[in-house]
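Chapter review. Work through the record for ABC transporter before attempting the end-of-chapter questions.
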Amino acid sequence: MTEPVLRLEAVRKSFGGTLVLRDVDLEVAPHTVTALIGASGSGKSTLLRCVNLLEEIDDGAVFLDGDEITDPRTDADLVRRRIGVVFQAYNLFPHMTVLENVTLAPRRVHRAGKERARERALELLARLGLQDKADAYPDRLSGGQQQRVAIVRALAVEPRLLLLDEITAALDPELVGEVLAVVRDLKDQGMTMVIATHEMGFAREVADQVCFLDGGAVLERGTPEEVFGEPRRARTQAFLARVLEAGRPVGRPTV
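Structure tokens for ABC transporter:
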């Protein structure tokens, strides 16, 4: 069988006396999309931060391509070179142009040559419809454009795994569609992704695997058809019912 790109085994994480992740097991196969759903505070963002070693786990293990990256001897910087991350806050450097933002990590971290980094950045910007924004500064871009630049920056390091944390949460509704369209394209290109999202229709459309988190535990997992169409756990059913009442349909894409 194909080795999972990402594997979590009984991962636990606490902040103070609060257990935030409870014995989380997860496998993500190559070229697949896993969507993490659940209410705010359910542990989705913390899980992603633990995968990228931004948070130290208390117990369990995380593996990337079969290598345990949570081993204390692991060089976290080397691991992060293999993982791209996009957060809901764009985190672009305001004093740098779009092109400078995108080429920074390839040049400084991956030691790519200036011209090679520039060519790769311009290629990615063109793919995401931003070729005319290379020399613009972030404050001249819309929220959707800034988020697309953040995705380009993550892709510029040619990651093995891409983590997306509520990337539409800070966007106006009319800008959500353009960012989700980019994620659809990345799926079609075979990018392996883990997405924490509140966009239920989108999760149903693009995910190969859906995990419902509640109280830091994965209470239910399965295909989108299984989790959205025939949820088995009462807590999953209650969460999806609340989402429906809030006006976020799970039966069709959001855009």
